[in-house]
Structure to design on (267 residues):
């Protein structure tokens, strides 16, 4: 519930900025100030150096690349708007619900850009309610006009706080975005339940790719948990939906490994 309160606070701040005619352009979790009561305030809304496209690729505090939070049209055409801020807010939601995990893990800027162009979207964080992941996916719609407004986002999050069990069907209209939604809504067995990579693939209905994993040398679940997007693409899996499903399952597996060992999985 505290996480929901924080997200609602950020949405409220962005709603106000939008109504005042501001476009943030740099919204990210590290741009949100949190006090001792977990009250959130949005900071850092200053213009980018719009005469230099390199500004989009610059590195900010703590080595955080702007690309990870920036909407496709802002990267490609330098078109910033409240809709591009909505995309960034979706990434902030993912950061909060994953307890501060780095968006897109260890992917480089160009890999992130290419993956998004190909339709990849971040999978649901571990234990993230399906309706919240759906809201993230709504924020990450390719077409700006199809993304919700901050007023709609704030309303949806406020309803979620008041009625956390019944929001899934009453928030924004659901849209289809590949297999990520299906995976987010379906529980997977926990890591200790698997004795092999083959069993794990069977559990996510991807057993047809056992030979691909074996040929690439992924014979242990720990090594699978370290796989990146590029590693998955190198397996020779041509179905984009299957790539998304496997990547989402790897994210879940990675989180389970972290919980088991009490430390991060080095990638």
């Amino acid at each position: 519930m505290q996480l929901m309160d924080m997200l609602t606070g950020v949405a409220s701040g962005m709603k106000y900025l939008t109504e005042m005619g501001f476009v943030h352009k740099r919204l990210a979790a590290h741009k949100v100030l949190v006090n001792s009561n977990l009250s959130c305030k949005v900071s850092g809304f200053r213009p980018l150096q719009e005469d230099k496209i390199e500004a989009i690729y610059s590195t900010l505090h703590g080595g955080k690349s702007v690309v990870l939070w920036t909407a496709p049209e802002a990267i490609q055409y330098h078109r910033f708007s409240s809709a591009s801020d909505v995309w960034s807010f979706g990434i902030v939601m993912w950061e909060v619900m994953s307890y501060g995990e780095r968006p897109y893990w260890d992917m480089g800027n160009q890999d992130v850009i290419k993956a998004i162009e190909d339709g990849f979207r971040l999978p649901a964080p571990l234990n993230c309610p399906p309706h919240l992941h759906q809201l993230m996916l709504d924020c990450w719609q390719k077409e700006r006009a199809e993304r919700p407004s901050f007023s709609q986002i704030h309303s949806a999050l406020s309803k979620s706080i008041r009625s956390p069990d019944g929001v899934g069907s009453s928030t924004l209209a659901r849209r289809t975005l590949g297999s990520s939604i299906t995976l987010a809504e379906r529980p997977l067995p926990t890591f200790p339940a698997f004795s092999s990579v083959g069993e794990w693939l069977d559990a996510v209905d991807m057993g047809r790719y056992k030979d691909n994993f074996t040929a690439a040398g992924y014979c242990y679940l720990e090594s699978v948990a370290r796989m990146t997007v590029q590693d998955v693409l190198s397996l020779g899996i041509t179905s984009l939906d299957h790539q998304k499903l496997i990547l989402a399952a790897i994210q879940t597996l990675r989180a389970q490994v972290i919980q088991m060992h009490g430390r991060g999985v080095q990638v």
About this structure: The first strand starts at residue 32 and ends at 34. Residues 189 and 203 are 7 Å apart (CA to CA). The two ends are 31 Å apart (CA to CA). The chain has two domains: 2-174, 187-261.
